[in-house]
């Protein structure tokens, strides 16, 4: 491959891959699913699944991408020629397009909130008014439409720049900035009077509260937070040098994702409890509860702007990876056409997202299986396509790659031994598929 098609540095790859994993899943979704599923017990199970099953699946995707040095569809074809397994790559691309179609809508909401916070239009003193404000924003076709376009334009402009000059360069700035902003917010949150109750809720597990649903929701959140099952990590690892240590890279990415998840909870729950608000607000938590929390703090508008900037960074880094998986597949077939591929696929994905952006306004009464376009797309992706993709990858790798090939790719450049390889293979071959099938059946209401 050309050097321009590879990561310039290992840290650049880790920042970009961690940025892909650390998006709305860690900062937006984790706090509200933790809040609605009992707090500490849920977070504990989420950590277990992320560290064990998440790391296992990331390594599986790394092996496919680094071994073939190709984007998903040709990568699966290369390993299993003349078989339908390439459809796993097709599924990943379709899923990425659908995720980004509604992901960019949420990114637009965040962008709108950030601009409003800078102009002082998010300083309503009464907490209840934020629910009305949120509803008015997402139902306004002009405001959400402009924000949606802006978010997609930023994503396209970065991805068209390529791996080194686009995604790696921007992610290497955004990710460190994200950590710095998070640390500032956590320090402020922990100094609030009454913060201890929020910390206890988040970090002290009540194991009596763990049930089948808690376990299965935690499993689903682990996969969602790491963007597993979409072949994003296949794409990113295809740009890796053959000498890179896959195990160290995977553990670094998972570790950063866990750290951000921890910081996210510590930034949010102490404030929620300090001001006697409800942690189980649901998906609108960051848009309705958090502005109310920050409005009660000294310099609250400053901290709210910082939080929204952080959330915007996290959302954009994930959006880059979702568009890149599509663009890389086009560029593989048509070299030197990255700019056209980025704009063409970006515009198509934007058009796909228009019904989602209008789901709470002009198209609020247009329903699919009882859900608006936004909720139907979210359900399809999060509860069906992502687990299906992860399951197929877990089956594909041990079935279509020989043990010597997997072992060589996994252990190259690392100090891990055959015991590690056998443990990883056992988890991938047996534990991961069983866990995904259990979560899948539960979502479908079969078990």
UniProtKB/TrEMBL annotation:
Which compartments does it reside in?
Membrane
PANTHER family for this protein: TRANSPORTER
Keyword line? Membrane, Transmembrane, Transmembrane helix, Transport
- TM region positions: 12-30, 42-64, 85-115, 144-163, 175-195, 215-240, 252-277, 297-326, 347-368, 380-398, 419-441
**Top-level taxon of origin:** Bacteria
Signal peptide positions on this chain: none
Name of the protein in question: Neurotransmitter:Na+ symporter, NSS family
Q: How does it sit in the membrane?
A: Multi-pass membrane protein
Q: Print the organism lineage.
A: Bacteria, Bacillati, Bacillota, Bacilli, Bacillales
Q: What is its main location?
A: membrane
Where is it found, in Gene Ontology cellular component terms? membrane
What is the protein's species of origin?
Alteribacillus iranensis
